[in-house]
Please model this.
Amino acid sequence: MKNRRSIRKYSRDSIPLEKIFQILEAGTYAPSGANLQPWIYIIVTDNELKEKIRKEAEKTERSFHEKAPVQLRRWLKEQKITPEKSFLTEAPALIVVAGLTKAPYWLESTWISIAYILLSVEAQNLGTLTYTPSKTVFLNKLLRIPDDYHPVAILPIGNPAERPSPETRARKPLEQRVYLNRYGDKWQN
Model:
């Protein structure tokens, strides 16, 4: 967990589907509301399809960036987050995760599944990031996802072509986030 970082640059080396299935199996062990396991995973390895996903994602992101409040646009620029999403075509595989909106707690359950996947990717010494397009309807169309499923994230999977240090994103101390019994009541370590 401490070493996991968001990876935005990937080598073009292919990843065996068996390894991706192992990663996704970890996601299936996530708890879910009423044990309905409302998530689905679509593995995308077809380069032409990845190009179409990237094109639509970048179109969506350009619109989001243009309409974002000034403060957010400034932060995005500082973080070097642009509408360009080259990782969608660089990574050898994409996993599109969608949740069944008719299920209770579908969104929470789907995100817990994604968290399990992220940890499994790290355990396999691969890289990923949770890319959440501001609009996802294009994924329903391109991947023939039924309307009652809502895509929530695209996870590029591959061998990292970068290794950001875990120290570059400092974590707030536990003392700033944990209270005893009531908000504001500090706990003693």
